[in-house]
Design a protein that fits this description.
The chain is an alpha+beta fold. It contains 18 helices and seven strands. The protein has a five-stranded mixed sheet. It is flat.
Length: 423
């Protein structure tokens, strides 16, 4: 960023820092609505209440971008939010010219607000520096608009790719079928299974879910396209996503960062698992990846897990006598829920008593007492390596439903399998 832009941080007008004089989003939203929206340059099918909310969201993102520029902060996150919001406008039918006009109206209104009380003699330098910052801001916003509309065009034209993704996941795709849709199949893929989770699993759905879900999908799809170009195939709804990324177009060492970027775009926590699969065994890979995702849900884990990292848990979760026997090791704790919670927490904190105490908000001596009771009741000592291994295996088997009847397991897997409807 130019030094002249960064120096605007210290610029003042009428004795106050420019940064402290940024207007409220509602002020700028009102100007845009009165000078642009009411001019009927938007589709008439969009309710005015929705327009007002969407304009305010975009203005907030632009103000955050201006704030980051004035303070020399990282602009990547607000720019990504601006692009996602603009994609929403494009999806609603707003032309790119109209979008440029709306942003010009907004940036001009912010600049006028900042310089309205400036005195020519005393504040001349500050006004120039602020104007230079706004030139840079306008350039960034113009690029964001162009990028957003290009991505929207790509996303809108992805129905053929989505159809191929659905067929691959179902195990019915053929090279001839893919070529007919203009898609060239790779020899092998990384299969990502993702679940977008609320801050607390099981929380009540928010009342604006019908509005948020399409926005979340658009943001995630835009971020995936940004990271993987046109090589990725995907199937997505508001809660889950299945991504098929050709192995020669993705470095698995960047998977954790990739998932973090998806979580930022979704604006929520993400559970993710990935496996490698040949093109002719995608359906099996999808099943395994979503099975790992289900294990993560039952174990209350978030973030990224590779299949190899949870292969033991995966095997323990399969129906069978061994899993049933392991799960039964914890039956004596059925009547001691506090001990069961302590054991779960202790294993999740890598058997560290101080971390367990902090997580449970109790004294470490209380943890010691409870661990001793667990050893007494189950015959397995959670402070010894052998006991830890057996107790961890038993807990995994219990939480993943290992040893249950096949019909029950099938029902569970259906509830977490990817949906058949492509986004």
């Amino acid at each position: 960023m130019p030094d002249s832009v960064l120096s605007a941080r210290a610029a003042t007008t009428v004795g106050r820092p420019v940064l402290d004089r940024l207007p409220a989003a509602s002020t700028i939203s009102g100007k845009i609505l009165s000078r642009f929206i009411v001019g009927s340059e938007l589709p008439t099918r969009v309710p005015i209440a929705v327009l007002r909310r969407n304009v305010t969201v975009l203005v907030n993102a632009c103000l955050e971008l201006a704030d980051r520029m004035l303070t020399g902060g990282d602009t990547a996150e607000p720019l990504a939010e601006v692009r996602a919001d603009i994609m929403g406008w494009a999806h609603q039918g707003v032309t790119i010219g109209a979008m440029h006009k709306a942003v010009r109206v907004g940036t001009q209104a912010v600049f006028d607000h900042l310089t309205a009380q400036a005195e020519l003699d005393q504040d001349h330098g500050a006004v120039i520096e602020t104007a230079q910052m706004f030139v840079h801001l306008s350039r960034e916003l113009s690029m964001a608009i162009s990028q957003a509309y290009l991505r929207d065009i790509r996303a809108a034209g992805s129905e053929a790719a989505d159809a191929v993704a659905t067929a691959l996941i179902a195990g019915t795709a053929t090279p001839a079928m893919a070529r007919a849709f203009g898609v060239r199949l790779a020899a092998s893929y990384f299969v990502f299974a993702m679940q977008f989770t609320p801050p607390h699993d099981g929380a009540e759905p928010r009342p604006d879910r019908q509005i948020l879900a399409p926005r979340t999908i658009r943001r995630v799809r835009a971020e995936v396209l940004h990271q993987c170009d046109d090589h990725v195939l995907m199937q997505m709804d508001a809660d889950t996503a299945t991504l098929l990324i050709p192995q020669d177009h993705f470095d698995p060492h960047t998977a954790e960062r990739f998932v973090e970027q998806i979580a930022a775009a979704a604006q929520t926590r993400v559970r993710a698992a990935f496996v490698a699969a040949a093109a002719d065994s995608i359906s099996e890979g999808v099943e395994r990846a979503h099975a790992v995702l289900d294990i993560m849900r039952r174990l209350r884990r978030v973030g990224l897990e590779r299949f190899d990292d949870l292969s033991l848990e995966y095997q323990l979760s399969r129906p069978g006598t061994a899993g049933k026997h392991l799960a039964a090791l914890l039956d004596p704790l059925e009547d001691h829920p506090i001990l069961l919670e302590t054991l779960t927490t202790h294993l999740a904190t890598h058997s560290t008593r101080l971390r367990t105490a902090r997580a449970l908000h109790v004294h470490p001596n209380t943890v010691d007492y409870r661990l001793n009771k667990i050893a007494e009741i189950t015959g397995l000592d959670p402070t010894q390596p052998d006991g830890v291994w057996r107790l961890r295996s038993a807990l995994v088997a219990r939480m993943t439903g290992a040893g249950e009847e096949e019909s029950v397991t099938d029902s569970d897997s259906d509830s977490t399998a990817p949906t058949a409807q492509a986004c």
